[in-house]
User: Which sequence fits this backbone?
């Protein structure tokens, strides 16, 4: 694939889209020339209880870092996502639920969603949850997960959704970090025909969380679960006890909406904090323009609500726009590899948004499972979470989209709240593998390792030069870490942690993380987290983890493990360690390859030279760089031999 392969905008798409190419440039220039005027206008897209008079108050200076948008306005996110649509859309479908079992699906109208969220909000209130309290949501992909988020938003509680694939320990750490005392979960989840013991995991986690006094449990499967009298409450029983009238709390634009934990290059996961007004403006605006959402569309994002994509583009963006959003409980290959496309046909999905890892996995199954389905309803495809290789892009375009549907390759992060770099379907000629151009108001800045600004076509580190309303505001409970992580490497800019290339047309090509974060199947994982899980095992003396290219996952997890003296490597121990990491963090952190390392390459000051470990993991020994500064250069040869003999 060369950069000359450009897919022109389809004139028919442009004609019906919110913006065409000229419109994009005009709006983009306005947004950069006068952000106050631009966001002052677009900030009005949501309902404000008290309109804002101040648009933007931002300083990126490390000693005075603050980010405020629409700061004197008041609003409520749940009101915007539900109440506001009742007059015109009470009976329209808000959520289509498609269960893991293909026989299990239902439509939930705006009226029904509103009523259930009000009840759930009243349950929270009755149980003592107040504005500003943190509520942990550990749920399967069912509509009640969205209701739980909206119920928190309705009463001003801050939700922290923890992905249902995380282990009891990971759940406990997140509960403790934000001092949450209320958990919403389900008896069990179901994915790909298998049960996930969410309540049992919660019980185990809560052994370490004395602060939690109530657990609300949704009955999803009816499976056997433990029960703590006085602490555990059934969702259906409590909802039946309360009224469906719950006035929305008037929230300041800068009041917190949610915390979402994400991995960083060091230490434990960070609680990314998003606030109310700016977040909703940005999530809803990007959802409308990037997916070119129009009334009548059926929109499906396959992410899990445990990740930011689920927050912004399953729940908040679509519902704020009065859209029909599909919530899918299952996996792409159950009951078979046609499932995604069967669901598309069943519900007449017109906009489909997924991750490259899913596309690559389905691509491996060949065209048959796709071709068996019609997919005529589709008009737009999206990609998110990791770079999409041109081969997968072309397959997605040709086989899934029948060469009819534009693909929006959307680059963004948990921290950014919404999409920052992306094509717009009616406006942007596409280049497979490129996230193309910045969204309105986004000012990408490319810098070299020393922070020098790079102009024109270049390769370097990607920063953003000014704020946008959806930006995170702080790391919950650790503002200093916020400043350090994002604003200290390159002063007066937000540093994304990603490397990128900008071509002569001004298109961005994200090359991946430049820090010690790896991206496994579109899931972010800190190498330090996996290392600390490994060294917590009694037989492990030391561990170093790096990413390596993986055909399906994008990156795989490669662990170098040094055993304590006297322990012998064995296949059984290798399996035990993989299992150990799964139970410490969750299945998404399972090492793909473990290499026994009698020694690790360290500098004389004891720092592990990861650059070398990455090269060895990639099977690239030609370019190991200078190894003379190592305390013991011989360990490198030893590791290479191990790599070549046996994984
Ligand atoms: O490296 C980038 C990659 O995913 C990282 C953000 O991960 P997370 O916070 O979990 O959010 C994922 C969903 C928004 C980024 O720093 N990434 C995300 N989207 C893309 C991407 N890399 C390349 N192309 C993308 N479209």
Assistant:
């Amino acid at each position: 694939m060369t950069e000359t392969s450009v897919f022109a905008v389809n004139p028919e798409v442009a004609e019906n889209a919110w913006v065409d190419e000229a419109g994009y440039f005009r709006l983009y220039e306005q947004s950069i020339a006068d952000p106050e005027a631009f966001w002052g206008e677009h900030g009005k897209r949501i309902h404000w209880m008290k309109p804002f008079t101040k648009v933007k108050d931002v300083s990126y200076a490390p000693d005075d870092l603050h980010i405020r948008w629409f700061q004197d306005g008041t609003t409520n996110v749940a009101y915007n996502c539900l109440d506001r649509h009742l007059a015109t859309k009470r009976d329209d479908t808000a959520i289509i639920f498609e269960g893991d079992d293909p026989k299990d699906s239902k439509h939930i109208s705006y009226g029904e969603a509103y009523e259930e969220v009000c009840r759930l909000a009243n349950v929270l209130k009755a149980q003592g949850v107040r504005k500003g309290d943190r509520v942990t949501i550990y749920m399967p992909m069912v509509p009640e997960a969205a209701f739980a988020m909206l119920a928190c938003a309705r009463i001003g509680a801050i939700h922290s959704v923890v992905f249902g694939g995380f282990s009891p320990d990971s759940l406990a750490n997140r509960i403790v970090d934000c001092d949450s005392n209320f958990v919403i979960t389900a008896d069990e989840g179901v994915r790909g025909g298998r049960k996930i013991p969410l309540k049992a995991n919660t019980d185990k986690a809560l052994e370490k969380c004395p602060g939690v006094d109530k657990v609300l449990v949704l009955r999803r499967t009816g499976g056997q679960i433990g029960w703590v009298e006085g602490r555990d409450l059934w969702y259906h029983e409590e909802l039946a006890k309360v009224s469906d009238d719950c006035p929305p709390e008037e929230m300041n634009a800068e009041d917190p909406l949610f915390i979402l934990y994400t991995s960083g290059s060091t230490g434990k996961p960070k609680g990314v904090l998003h606030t109310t007004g700016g977040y909703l403006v940005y999530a809803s605006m990007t959802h409308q323009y990037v997916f070119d959402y129009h009334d009548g569309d059926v929109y499906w994002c396959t992410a899990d609500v445990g990740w930011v994509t689920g927050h912004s583009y399953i729940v908040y963006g679509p519902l704020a726009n009065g859209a029909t959003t599909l919530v899918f409980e299952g996996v792409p290959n159950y009951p078979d590899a046609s499932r995604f496309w069967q669901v598309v046909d069943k519900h007449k999905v017109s906009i489909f948004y997924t991750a490259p890892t899913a596309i690559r996995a389905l691509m491996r199954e060949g065209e048959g499972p796709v071709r068996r389905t019609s997919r005529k309803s589709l008009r737009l495809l999206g990609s998110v979470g990791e770079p999409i290789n041109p081969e997968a892009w072309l397959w997605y375009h040709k086989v899934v989209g029948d060469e009819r549907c534009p693909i929006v390759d959307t680059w963004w992060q948990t921290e950014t709240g919404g999409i920052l770099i992306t094509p717009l379907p009616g406006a942007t000629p596409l280049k497979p593998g490129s996230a193309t151009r910045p969204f309105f108001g986004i000012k990408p800045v490319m810098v070299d390792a020393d922070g020098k600004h790079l102009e024109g076509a270049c390769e370097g580190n990607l920063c953003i030069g000014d704020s946008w309303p959806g930006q995170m505001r702080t790391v919950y409970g650790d503002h200093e870490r916020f400043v350090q992580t994002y604003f200290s490497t390159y002063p007066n800019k937000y540093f994304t942690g990603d490397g990128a290339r900008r071509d002569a047309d001004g298109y961005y090509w994200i090359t991946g993380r430049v820090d010690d974060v790896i991206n496994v199947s579109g899931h972010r994982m800190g190498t330090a987290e996996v290392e600390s899980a490994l060294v917590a095992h009694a037989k492990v003396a030391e561990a170093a983890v790096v990413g390596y290219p993986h055909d399906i996952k994008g990156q795989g997890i490669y662990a170098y493990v040094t055993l304590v003296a006297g322990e012998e490597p064995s296949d059984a121990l290798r399996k035990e360690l993989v299992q150990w990491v799964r139970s410490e963090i969750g299945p998404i952190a399972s090492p793909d390859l473990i290499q026994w390392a009698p020694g690790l390459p360290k500098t004389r000051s004891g720092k592990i030279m990861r650059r070398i470990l990455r090269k060895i993991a990639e099977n690239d020994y030609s370019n190991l760089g200078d190894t003379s500064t190592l305390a013991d250069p011989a360990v490198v040869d030893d590791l290479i031999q191990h790599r070549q003999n046996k994984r």
Notes: The longest helix spans residues 110-126. The two ends are 32 Å apart (CA to CA). The pocket of adenosine-5'-monophosphate-propyl ester is lined by residues 262, 308-309, 384-387, 409-414, 435, 496-498, 510, 512-513, 519, 524 (CB under 6 Å).
